[in-house]
Specification:
This protein is an all-alpha fold and 280 residues long. Helices cover 79% and strands 0% of the residues. The protein is built from 10 helices and no strands. The chain has helices at 4-32, 40-65, 74-83, 85-105, 109-123, 134-156, 158-167, 170-202, 213-239, 249-274. Helix 1 (4-32) runs antiparallel to helix 5 (109-123), helix 5 (109-123) crosses helix 6 and helix 6 (134-156) packs antiparallel against helix 8. The chain starts with a helix and ends in a 6-residue tail after the last helix.
Length: 280
Amino acid sequence: MADPGTLLILCRMVVFGAALMIWGAALFRWRLTPDAAPLPPERVLPVALLAALAAQLPVEVARIAGDWSAATDPGMVLSVIGLTSPGQAWLVQALAAIALIIARQRQSLRGQLLGGLLLMAGLSMTGHAAASGGMAGLLRQVNHVLHLAAAGAWIGALPHVLCLLRRMPDAAASAVLMRYSGEGHFWVALVLLTGLAAMLWTVGGLPLDWVAPYQALLSAKIAVVAAMVGLALRNRYVIVPRLRERPDGLAAIARATRSEIALGLIAAALVAWLATLDPH
């Protein structure tokens, strides 16, 4: 039987990636294309999220109990949901996923935004952000919610951007990209600031002890994010300003967006892995 810890990382990768893209797509549509029809990712992601959460619960129960047989024990499952922070976080995330599916069926963009925020809150209820109690713990969790919301607004919206480039006329797509890249300054800055705060809280400084797996992986995540920032800056200050003179610039943005999505998936995988490790 596979190790529950490994399977839990895989489940969290899917949950984390889907959560960022759901929030990013909803925010993108609300801010930039409120009248546009929903795109394919919006139909699939809430269902994928709920499926990943359904798979995650028995894995979480087996990890906590140290025995796979506990995953099929209703009493143990209910105890994990009601009495442990991972179980309570899972419940909030599952409720958010159901709310998102309902909002999607009703085509309620406001419902998708609220469901996305609830999902961000659920993701902050476990891991290192929830390790402290009192006011310090609350501040860490608020910081984590802001970090996830900013990451979703930037990274999570990228698949939506790619679909947009394929569907909209070039002139309309260029206008939307101008606004998206302008607002991106705020979201990228918020990702970096909240990420720095989380690192200082968790590690106490720069992750320079690469013998410790957590700090080595955190360094890798920082390098991935730095590469994404570089691509975003190139898009904003090199390619986007040329869109009016060079229509082929949209193809260049599409290529850069695909690269950012690939890096974003790597970052999501690293975050899911980091949540299971001791920072020291």
